[in-house]
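Tokens for chain A. Residues wanted.
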């Protein structure tokens, strides 16, 4: 009896073990190596970040809601399920979805799917991705909720005009004047790893301004700084190794830490790339100039401020008076921040808690990342472990929520003593970052779009969805 039971269990197991081999034989196409190559490209492209509902959904089964000022877009199931996923996609249909934003049934996808970046992918890499998505991903027999935007945003065809203007239609071609490493770096940085999506400022139609490549852009509540090779405004003072270390770990001692969407990109994607590919990306990024290059002698955002405190400034004084006179910053710092960042903002010796002087977040050209760090904290998973700073905004796990007036006071104290003393933060600035970053212009465009036609609204949607997704998933990670 016992042995029968074991046999009964073993038989389906043995069958299951055979099944993939025979399936591969009958389909007869994809080698293990090809599927692995596809898996690596999918990681480099961060497909899983958007196509998974991180509140308990299965990988690649879709269902992640991405809110935008004009409605919620929901990512789709891209597992090989024939009924609910992309199991019936031919390779040509798959290529069109990834590179051109055209769905299997011919309808246009919303640019929340970053086909503009992926458009540079070679046929060879699309082939590997297709192999992975048909034979390397588990089918999930679940329907992702459907996207239904209000009129006129529900007219998918109106994306065609924008695509005509702004979607590149050429795959990557090597520049023979450059090294193989540089070309590989360009291919990854502009395509799969899409650095410019966040680090390049956008124009009125929400298109990336190619002539200002990597000179810095607002992405939801965070600012993705200038990463050109400019010595003052960019990262021209970093070595090749510095940049690779940052992409792999999310930090560079006494210079920069990755929070927000950069932390997500590192956690899900960049840290898993090979050293060869990270070096290629660094080689390419370090070759990009800032068109308005600055004098090399000026101080950078990595070497501003110094250690110190203002304990005597508030001892024995009334907190409410301090708030009124806007000098409660040092009191707020001591109460909320000093336990980790130190009384003199010097951080800890091992660098786990960074110093707040000599820190890119506090000495940038704008105060966005100081405010965002306070409101949203830091949350990053790498091979080195979990890096976490609690949020002080209104996130679900906030221990001590600070008001706009308090955050402004605290930011001004940090900027003045440790960072860029030329900047000043108002409570209104804080509210803007709390609301997910500067989006009023987008909303305005969306309203105009309602009156004038769907195209304008969809243009707005394109960027807005991306920006708001970042805020949304941040809230989810925090929860
Ligand atoms: C920034 C978020 C994001 C990333 C990254 C992303 N996608 Fe998407 N993708 C979406 C959204 C949202 C949709 C649905 C858009 C719509 O409904 O118009 C989508 C739709 C698709 C579709 C169409 C499926 C269907 O409904 O028939 C395919 C195929 C697809 N994505 C593949 C990929 C692959 C492969 C990758 C990685 C190389 C990837 N996506 C990365 C957001 C993303
Ligand atoms: C999804 C948006 C996003 C993508 C994609 C992205 N970044 Fe970032 N990046 C950011 C944000 C936001 C910051 C600021 C993080 C902080 O200070 O906490 C940042 C910070 C950085 C910094 C540190 C700069 C400084 O002064 O602190 C470097 C270097 C960098 N990114 C390089 C890259 C490279 C190279 C790529 C592509 C391989 C890339 N990023 C892709 C959003 C992004
Ligand atoms: C429980 C410990 C802890 C507390 C309390 C704390 N921080 Fe942090 N902080 C961290 C950690 C950890 C990091 C990220 C280090 C890394 O990325 O490697 C960080 C990073 C930062 C950064 C850089 C973020 C970036 O995007 O580059 C700033 C600015 C900052 N903290 C300010 C503050 C302020 C202001 C307070 C008080 C309101 C505060 N912190 C309270 C632990 C803490």
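Reply:
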């Amino acid at each position: 009896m016992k042995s029968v039971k074991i046999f009964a269990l073993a038989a389906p197991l043995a069958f299951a073990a055979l099944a993939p081999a025979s399936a591969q034989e009958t389909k007869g196409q994809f080698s293990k190596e090809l599927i692995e190559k596809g898996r690596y490209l999918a990681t480099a492209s961060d497909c899983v970040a958007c196509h998974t509902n991180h509140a308990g959904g299965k990988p690649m089964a879709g269902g992640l809601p991405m809110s935008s000022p004009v409605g919620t877009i929901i990512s789709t199931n891209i597992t090989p399920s024939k009924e609910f996923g992309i199991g019936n996609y031919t390779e040509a249909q798959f290529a069109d979805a990834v590179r051109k934003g055209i769905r299997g049934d011919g309808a246009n996808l919303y640019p929340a799917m970053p086909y503009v970046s992926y458009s540079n992918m070679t046929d060879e890499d699309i082939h590997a991705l297709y192999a992975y998505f048909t034979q390397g991903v588990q089918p999930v027999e679940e329907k992702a909720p459907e996207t239904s935007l209000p009129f006129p945003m529900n007219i998918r065809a109106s994306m065609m005009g924008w695509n005509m203007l702004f979607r590149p239609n050429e795959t990557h071609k090597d520049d023979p004047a450059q090294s193989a490493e540089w070309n590989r770096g360009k291919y990854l940085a502009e395509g799969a790893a899409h650095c410019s999506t966040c680090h390049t400022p956008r124009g009125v139609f929400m298109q990336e301004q190619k002539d200002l490549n990597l000179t810095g852009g607002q992405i939801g509540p965070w600012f993705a700084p200038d990463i050109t090779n400019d010595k003052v405004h960019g990262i021209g003072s970093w070595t090749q190794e510095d940049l690779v270390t940052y992409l792999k770990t999310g930090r560079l001692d006494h210079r920069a830490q990755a929070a927000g969407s950069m932390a997500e990109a590192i956690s899900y994607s960049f840290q898993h790339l090979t050293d060869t590919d990270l070096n290629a990306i660094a080689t390419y990024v370090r070759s990009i100039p800032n068109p308005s290059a600055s004098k090399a002698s000026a101080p950078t955002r990595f070497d501003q401020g110094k250690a110190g405190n203002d304990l005597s400034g508030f001892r024995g004084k009334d907190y409410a008076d301090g708030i009124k006179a806007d000098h409660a910053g040092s009191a707020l710092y001591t109460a909320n921040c000093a336990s980790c960042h130190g009384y003199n903002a010097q951080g800890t010796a091992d660098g786990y808690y960074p110093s707040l002087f000599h820190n890119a977040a506090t000495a940038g050209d704008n105060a966005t990342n100081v405010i965002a760090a306070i409101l949203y904290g830091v949350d990053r998973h790498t091979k080195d472990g979990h890096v976490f700073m609690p949020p002080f905004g209104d996130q679900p796990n906030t221990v001590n929520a600070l008001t706009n007036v308090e955050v402004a006071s605290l930011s001004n104290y940090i900027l003045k003593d440790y960072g860029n003393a030329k900047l000043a933060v108002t409570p209104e600035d804080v509210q803007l970052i709390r609301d997910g970053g500067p989006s009023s212009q987008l909303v305005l465009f969306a309203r105009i779009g309602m009156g004038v036609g769907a195209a304008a609204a969809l243009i707005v949607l394109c960027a807005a969805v991306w920006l708001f997704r970042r805020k949304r998933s941040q809230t989810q990670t925090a929860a």
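DSSP finds 21 helices and eight strands in the chain. The first strand starts at residue 65 and ends at 68.
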